[in-house]
Design brief:
Elements (H helix, E strand, L loop, with lengths): L7 E8 L7 E7 L6 E10 L2 H10 L7 E2 L4 E8 L11 E4 L38 E3 L2 E5 L9 E5 L3 E3 L6 H4 L5 H13 L6 E5 L3 H12 L4 E5 L6 H7 L3 E3 L8 H8 L6 E4 L4 H9 L7 E4 L12 H5 L3 E4 L7 H13 L9 E6 L3 H9 L5 E5 L4
Parallel strand pairs: 4-8, 11-12, 11-14, 12-13, 14-15, 15-16, 17-18
Antiparallel strand pairs: 1-2, 1-4, 2-7, 3-5, 3-9, 3-18, 5-6, 6-10, 7-8
């Protein structure tokens, strides 16, 4: 392409500081270096983790930054040493890398990777190196991806090549939320046929967890949320029972135990709230109940009574649904293309990138499941 090897000036939504609206700016995007890929972002979802960084963690060291980590686009150019990607390829940038060489990548028990932004900088959620500048300042690349920009540069170990006919404004959701919730059920919890499950929180991640429970053959899926308006949508993905904790006169764990003869087999916490994490664990049956932490937070300690685990419950965490990123995402795209995985039903709003702050307001107030932001035309 004509832009190969040159700095690209493009539009991006910049988070200059915590707890402030994003600002549409012209930024400069450097050409890809060795083993890097420059991507034209076509579409991106807005995920709660973007809001977590902007409004909740408030780590000033993580700003200014371009947020966004749930995108899909087209390879514009590749840097030296890149052999498995070429301009024109459809791709999904990944916030978890898969180098294929480190001790984690070689171990089938985990999807962690020693390389990439996340190894040492979870607190500020970005690498200290960036391909972005604006007004003479370095702009950090959030989670190594920064999809709220028309162009971004990503290390090749954090890019998945996908099917040429995949609709980018749908499969972008596989860059985070849907893969995270779905995989938490099928990979991390390992939900079993005929089992009883509870899913706490019915945002996109929670609804994807419901979908995963159903795909794994659960016979009963209890959807738990303080917003009863979400229950109809949860039915679409397979929920069978519905509980609103604000309408109960006793703890939700006690109610679920009464509903299920002692507790559910599997409970997935998809909120990122340490109190809900404890409730999810306590909702599990003793003996074999498994509870999985899926919601992202790193701000508070969580706690439980030791007897909960001593009597046979298991507490686990799930990052990106347990999928090894470069291997897993293309397969999920293929499942969607074969109509074995829902994506369209998660999308409630579609907007241009410059309306990003409107999309943020929708999510803050629980008025959407997923908003797709159109960034560049294909």
């Amino acid at each position: 392409m004509a832009t190969a090897g040159k700095v690209i000036k493009c539009r991006a939504a910049v988070a200059w500081e915590p707890n402030k609206p994003l600002v549409m700016e012209e930024i400069e995007v450097a050409p890809p270096g060795a083993h890097e890929i420059r991507i034209k972002v076509v579409a991106t979802g807005l995920c709660h983790t973007d809001l977590y960084h902007l409004f909740e963690s408030k780590k000033k060291e993580g700003f200014p930054a371009v947020l966004g980590h749930e995108g899909a686009g087209i390879v514009e150019s590749v840097g030296p040493g890149v052999t498995k990607f070429k301009p024109g390829d459809k791709v999904i940038p990944l916030f978890i890398s898969q180098c294929g060489e480190c001790k984690f990548c070689r171990n089938p028990k985990t999807n962690l990777c020693e390389k990439g932004w996340s190894n040492e900088r979870y607190d500020v959620m970005s690498d200290d190196m960036s391909s972005f500048t604006c007004k003479g300042k370095t702009i950090l690349q959030f989670m190594g991806t920064s999809t709220f920009s028309e162009y971004t540069v990503v290390n090749e170990i954090a890019v998945a090549k996908i099917h040429d006919s995949a609709p980018l404004d749908k499969v972008c959701l596989l860059g985070c939320g849907i893969s995270t919730g779905y995989g938490a059920a099928v990979n991390t919890a390992k939900v079993e046929p005929g089992s009883t499950c509870a899913v706490f929180g019915l945002g996109a991640v929670g609804l994807a967890a419901v979908m995963g429970c159903k795909a794994a053959g659960a016979s009963r899926i209890i959807a738990v949320d303080i917003n009863s308006d979400k229950f109809e949508k949860a039915k679409v993905f397979g929920a069978t029972d519905f509980v609103n904790p604000t309408e109960l006169s006793k703890p939700v764990s006690q109610v679920l135990a009464e509903m299920t003869n002692g507790g559910v087999d599997f409970a997935l916490e998809c909120v990122g709230n340490v109190g809900v994490m404890r409730s999810a664990l306590e909702s599990c049956t003793k003996g074999w109940g498994v509870s999985v932490l899926v919601g992202w937070t790193d701000m508070y300690d969580f706690s439980a009574r030791p007897i909960q685990l001593i009597t046979g419950r298991t507490w686990k965490g799930s990052l990106f649904g347990g999928f090894k990123s470069k291997d897993g995402v293309p397969k999920l795209v293929d499942e969607y293309m074969a109509q074995k995985l829902k994506l369209d039903d998660f999308i409630t709003h579609t907007m241009p990138l410059h309306q990003i702050n409107d999309a943020i307001e929708l999510m803050k107030h629980g008025k959407c499941i997923r908003t797709i932001l159109n960034v560049c035309p294909e």
